[in-house]
Amino acid sequence: MSLLSFFLYVFVTSFTPGPNNIMAMVFANRFGLRNTIRFCWGVSAGFFVIMILCSYFNLLLHQFIPRIELIMTIIGVIYMLFLALKMMSSKPDDQNNNDGKHNGFLIGMLLQFINPKGILYGVTVISTFILPYHTSHTSLIFFSIFLALVGFLSTFCWSVFGSIFQSFLAKYRSQFNVIMALLLVYSAGSILVGYFIR
Question: Where are the transmembrane segments (predicted)?
Answer without folding.
Answer: 6-27, 39-58, 64-85, 141-164, 176-197
